[in-house]
Every structure is written in structure tokens, then in C-alpha cells.
Amino acid sequence: MSARILAATTGRILRQLRHDRRTIALLVAVPTVLLTLVYFMYADQPTPPGQPSTFDRIALVMLGIFPFVIMFLVTSIAMLRERTSGTLERLLTTPLGKLDLLFGYGIAFGAAAAVQAAVAAAVAYWVFDLQTAGSGALVIGIAVLDAVLGVALGLFCSAFARTEFQAVQFLPVVVIPQLLLCGLFVARDQMAGWLQALSDAFPLSYAIEALQEVGAHTEPTGRMWRDVVVVFGSVVLALVLAAATLRRRSG
Amino acid sequence: MGDAIAVRDLVVDRGGRRVLDGISCTVARGAVTGLLGPSGSGKTTFMRAVVGVQVVTSGTITVLGQPAGAPALRHQVGYLTQAPSVYADLTVRENARYFAALYGRGRAEADRAISDVGLAQAAGQLVATLSGGQRSRASLACALVGDPELVILDEPTVGQDPVLRADLWARFHAMAAAGTTLLVSSHVMDEAARCDRLLLIREGRLIADDSPAAIRAAAGVDDLDEAFLRLIRAGAAHTGGAS
Question: Which of A103, A237, B22, B88 pairs with B229 at a CA distance of 20 to 30 A?
């Protein structure tokens, strides 16, 4: 890896994004629009005494899920475009290292996700009066980490897709099982044993648990930090696997 | 000095088909070598093998004294793919600056590469809005921006107007005069005459490896197109093959 090439690659990806105004608008606006839907869905639901309101519970989790799903999709397609346009093959004949490219995507889309998460969190806290025991900054930090997890899984999965058709099929395969089992619909400790085992194997479960910890405790807990470390480790693992699937030579 | 490229008994299979069948040749330093042959003859596969992105069945390829694809070569070899491989959602200048940065070059080199391919007027334009010929020149600028010792160009002049084509060939010869080695593929025979040396490939086999003048003399005709035709027929008669 080289700092100069990594910086150039990150800058290049951000410049591509900057030329695509519609994508920027979608990235920033979509989570907010979805949060608005969630807010009005639960506006008239009674809150059980001594518990967080349903909106608080769901919105907090959504702040982590939106960047994860969106960045997974955006990255899979972006990486596939590198493959189909021939730029990937060309890049691999230059001094660029595989990790320069993969970390470049991670940093560039992570930065985009930071903006996205900050806007969504600002709307959730100030417009919809989201209540969390812990700090909003931690919520945004974990949301960005979730986005980077989406980027890393997207980079890895794009290696197994030859076309855009195939790439979008990975969304239901990779993302939806993690959503179903992350504890949003049924608490993880109330699931059947084998479902719990699956849930334990999915990185998104830890990302969501970290957010729930921030929601329930005023100070960062040891469990939250453990969850953050697990998600971070999953990101590194996915990036290393993605690098292993990038072949300089092909048939 | 040695040769820039030395290929021995190169065999490549793609999709269960033998694309290159035992090619041996050398490419001299500081010259423009033309790689000629009809579409589907194996030119692109040969170039990919030299650059080191092609899985090779057997044979050896030595490039600038190292095995093809060696990490050190990535600083010394510029590769233009047949389909323009630049970012359509960036401007010409942003593309050139990015590839310049990969080779440790700056903005001045990027701007020079753009004007060398005649795109100075369009430098601020998004590649997606360029014509096909302009797009392929933008891609060429990115291949030349690192000032490589060896330049592999896959059909660089397709779709260019005749004046620009002449300019580009003059540019290639100026680079060769300055010591750069160029391997340029084409399926247009009138470009063959512009090369210092020619490699003619047909159906994965090398059927001629000589200077244009020597090829004309050997075939006994002035027209290179006709000379190649005679070489192909002579080769077919010799091996007893079809066509």
C-alpha cells in the first residue's frame, strides 16, 4: 500500500460521486424520508410504561441499517463498473496495490456515509425528538462503521457477480437474512437456538446491539465496545477476502 | 541492452480454445513494432500476456529483463486497452491526473499527456460526453502519462480522423526516438507501413516477423496487404492447412 496512491484513489472516487448530483441527493435524502415514514407509522402507538417508545427503538436501529444497506448496494455496483469498464484491469497493471483500491472505496464511501448518518441523526433527534440515553455522536460513529461494513461486504460480494443483474441479487442473499435476525423483529435471546447461532455469526447483529447499548446506557458500555471491535474486525476480514478475490491475471 | 520483449513458445487457451499457438518473437527497444492481424487473430491476448494480465498456458515472456507481470514492471509499462478504459463520470483532466498520481507524476505531466493526444480543448469535459475517438484518446493519455519505458497500445488509432492519426503516429515515432519501446496493434494494413518492424499474427500463429521493406521484398510486391496475402497463402500451402 502507498499513502499517495490511496489518497489519489479516495479522491478519485469522491470526485466521481461529486459529478453525480442525483446520487448525492438520494444518499442524503432517502434515510430521512424513510425515518419520516417510521415516525408517522408509530406516531399513535402507545408507549409501554418504563420502556422506550416504539419509534425510539426502531429509529435508532434504522440509523444503523440504512447506511449499511445503501452502501452495500452502491459499492457492489461501483466495483462492478470498475470491472466491466476495463478500468479495474488497467488499474491492476499500474503501481496501484489491491488494498489501495479497496481501502480507497472504504474511506470514500465511509466519508459519504458520515454525511448521510449525520443528516439522518440530526433529523431523528431534532425533528422527531429521538431519545437515547447515550450520546448522539456515538450513534453517528456506529452508523458510519455500519456503512463501512456495507462497503466491505459489497466489495467482497462484487467479486462473485459478473453483471449488474447478479450484483443486485446479493442484496437479498447477504443483507436481508442479517436484517431479519439482527434482533429488530424478534429479540435475539427469544429466537430458536440455531437462529441465535446464525445471528451470532452475522456482523450486523453486533452493529445493531452496539446501537441498542447506546440507546439504553448513558455511558459507553464494555459490551458496546466489544460489538464495535467485532464489526471492525469483520470489516477488515471482508476487505482482506475481497483483496484475495482480486486477480491481476484472468483467463 | 537486450530486447524489450522476448517471447518463447507462448501458448494461451481461452474458453477451451487455443488462442495463441506457440508464438516466439522479440521486440527491439526504442522502436515502433506493429502487431498486425485480422480481428480475432489473438492480438489482444498477446498484448494482455505481455502486460501480465493474461493467464498463460505455457511459454515464457520476458519484459525489460523481468518475467511479464512482475511488480516492478507496473512502473515501467503503459497499457492501452482496446475498449477505452477511463472513468466516464470524470473529466479528461481528472482521469489523467488520477493515472498520473498512480505513477507518482504531477499535474503538469497530466496536462502534457492531454495536449499530446490533442484533447487540450476538451480537458474539462466529462468523458461520457466525448465522441468515441476522443474517448479513446483520453484513454491513450492515461497510458502515456507515466512516461513508461514500454508502451503497449491496442488499436490506438481506431476511429480517429486522418490528420489526428498522422499526428499520433508522429508522436509514437518521437517517443521511440527518445528511447521508448512501442508495441502497437492494428488491423489496418496502411498503418503497418508506419512501423519499424512488423509482427503478423493469424489464427494464433506468427506468420511474419520482419521490417515492412523486408516483408515486401520477400513477397515480391510493393503493397503490404498483397504481401501479407501471399505470406498467408504460402504458409497455408506449406502446412497443408485449410484456407
Answer: B22
